[in-house]
Amino acid sequence: MGKLWFFEDVNLFKILCPHRYEGYKQEHIFSTYKKSDYIYFEDDAASKIYLIDKGKVKIGYYTEDGNEIIKAILTKGEIFGEKAILGIEKRNEFAQSIDNATVVCPVSKDTMYSLMRDNVSVSFKIYKFIGVRMKKLERRLQLLLFKDTRARLLEFFKELCEEYGHECDKTGDQVIEHPYTQKDIATLIGTSRPTLNTLMNELKQEQIIDFNRKEIRLLKKVA
After folding, report:
1. What is the CATH number of the domain that holds 27?
2. Are the CB atoms for 5 and 72 separated by under 8 Å?
3. Where are the beta strands (DSSP E) in 55-207?
4. Is the same domain home to 132 and 165?
5. Which helix or strand (DSSP H or E) is residue 111 part of?
6. Domain range holding 77?
7. Is 112 exposed, middle or buried (0-12, 13-18, 19+ CB in 10 A)?
8. What is the per-residue pLDDT across 103-134, written as a single tens digit (0 to 9) for each?
9. How far apart are CA 30 and CA 85, in angstroms?
10. Which residue in 4, 103, 129, 200 has the most C-beta neighbors within 10 A?
């Protein structure tokens, strides 16, 4: 999720992209994907880690019934495919571009290991980042299984507020400036776009939130 997956507001793309390092940038290229292009599939070899330079990528898997389950929607500055660092040999999820021009920086496991060996603090941040992401995914799956749609939406707003929110000095409201469309949000909380629209309008009428296309505002009385 955008900064949702940053570790303590650190943009891992800026730290890890091989173009930042003289010894790696000559042999390194970026990859561009159109909307709906797959970057990798389930059961593909897990040989690379990917950093997003532009666009959005959704991470998910398919159930035995063919239903699509979305685990995350990631944006500029985030990394994915990180389980390759942990020695997992095959993907258990897919990664798909959802923008018309998504640009990613693929990094081989060997290159990533080398970068991590050269900088212990970066290595620590990556492993802690992976731990934080796994915990958040586990929490999201629990919400999908045990909470109704309204509860999932409110919990999602809390996550957004933690990573994108800032307090409005004049009102004390929490203002969330985020990169997600309503379609993205509906996908992430496991509902339809019409249902999401209905819920958001209900929350607005109850003076719990206010929103427009660019921001969501958690009103002071409930923030």
Report:
1. 2.60.120.10
2. yes
3. 57-62, 68-74, 79-80, 94-97, 102-108, 165-167, 174-177
4. no
5. helix 109-118
6. 12-141
7. buried
8. 998 888 888 888 778 777 777 777 777 887 77
9. 20
10. 4
Domain shared by 18 and 105, yes or no:
yes
Q: Tell me how far the alpha carbon of residue 27 is from its chain's centroid.
A: 28
Domain boundary among 141, 165, 199: 141
125: Cβ contacts below 8 Å, ≥ 6 apart:
7, 8, 10, 12, 15
> How confident is the model over 66-103, as pLDDT tens digits?
888 888 888 888 889 988 988 889 999 999 999 999 99
DSSP secondary structure code for residue 93 in this structure: S
Task: Please identify which residue in the block is written with the tokens 């955008």.
Answer: 2
State how far the alpha carbon of 110 is from the alpha carbons of 24, 84, 92, 115, 194, in Å. 11, 10, 21, 9, 45
Whether residues 126 and 200 share a domain: the answer is no
Does residue 192 sit within a domain? yes
Helix/strand/coil for 161: helix
